[in-house]
Amino acid sequence: MNTNPLHSLASVTASVTTSLTACLLALACLTACDRKELFEHQELYAATVSIRPDWQSQSPTASALQIRIRGTHPATDFSPAISTDTTFTLAASGAAAASAEAAANATATAAASAANAALPEALLTLPEASYSLIAWHEASGLTFDGTRFRLSTLPDGTLAEPAPLCAAAITFCAIAGQENRPPLKMQPHTRLLKLTLNISQGTPELLTDVTATLTGCAATREIRGGEKLTRGEDCELMKAEACELTKAEGDKLTRTAETGDVGSIRPVFTRNGNTLSATHRLLGIAPAVRQQLTLTLHYAEGELQTQVYDLTSFLSGFNRFSPDTADEVFTLTGDLQLQQSLESPGISGTITGWTPGTETDLEAGNK
C-alpha cells in the first residue's frame, strides 16, 4: 500500500500543534491559578481598622494626636512577611478644636464628648496581625522618645513644670473579615500637687515669704503595656504566628506608667490672707526614693529659717489617679505656727498636722 508523504507530514504537524496548544493552555491555567491564589491571600488577610481616641470622662488635653502602629504579618506560601511601622497625625478641624476647647472650660463630661467628636476617625487597611499602638501629643516641658516622656531641666537644675498630658499604649489584633475598633482610651500622665500652709498661731505679718524645694519627683514617665483588647479565642481565629497574644501577655496588658529618673521642683507659694499655697504639675512621685520638702521661712525682720520635712508617707497616694479623677488635685495641707519670744530675739515657725486630700483643679486655681 502506498502512503502519501505529504499526508503523513500534515498529520504529524497537526499532532504537534495540538500538543503544544494543550501545554500552553495548561501553563496559562496554572499561572492564572497562582495569581488567583495570591490575590485571594491578599484579600483574605487585609483587615480594616478604625482608630478613634476616647478621652473617657476627663477633659481633653490636645486637639491633635501622634499615633504610631507597629506589627508584622508572617510569611506564607503565597506572600512574604509584611512589616508595618507607621506614624501619623490625627487632628481636629479648626472649628471642632475650638468647640472642644470651649467645652473644656465648662465640664469634664462635655469636654470629653466634644473632644471625641472633634477628632476624626482614622480608617486603616492593615495585614492581619498583632499590633502595638502608642498615641500621644506634644506638651510643653516634655520630650518623648517613643516609649518615655522626659521633663526638661531648668537652668537651676530643677525640673520644668509640664503641661497637661494624656497618652495611650495598647496591643490589639487586626482580624480580617470583621470590624476592628480597638478602644484607644487616653490616660492622664500628669497631676497637680497643691501644698498649703495655714498660719494657725502667731502674728501672720511676721512672715513675709516662703520658698521651697521638693525632692523625689519623677523626671521621666514610661508608657508600656496597655489594655487587653481581644479575647484569647479571637486570636485563635488567626494562625498562631499571625497574632501572638498569649494569656500571660494579655494579663500584663493593663495600664502601667512607671517613673524612672528623679529630680526636684521649686513650688512657688502665693499668699491669700493667712494662707500660703503653691500648685505645681508633676509627672509623678518617684516611689523608690523619699520626698523631702525644704522650706525657707522669710521673716519681717530679715531673718531666715530653713526646715526639712519628710513627706514620703503623705505623698504615697499621689500616683494613684485615673481618667475619672484626672481633674482632681492632690493636696497636702499643714498648720504653720509662728512663735516670737519676748525673752529672746528672733522668730521661729513650725509646721504640724500634714494632711493629704483632693480637690478639683478649678478649686485649686485651674493652674
UniProtKB/TrEMBL annotation:
Region described as Disordered: 347-367
Biased composition (Polar residues): 347-358
Superkingdom of origin organism: Bacteria
Name recorded for this polypeptide: Lipoprotein
Originating species: Bacteroides stercorirosoris
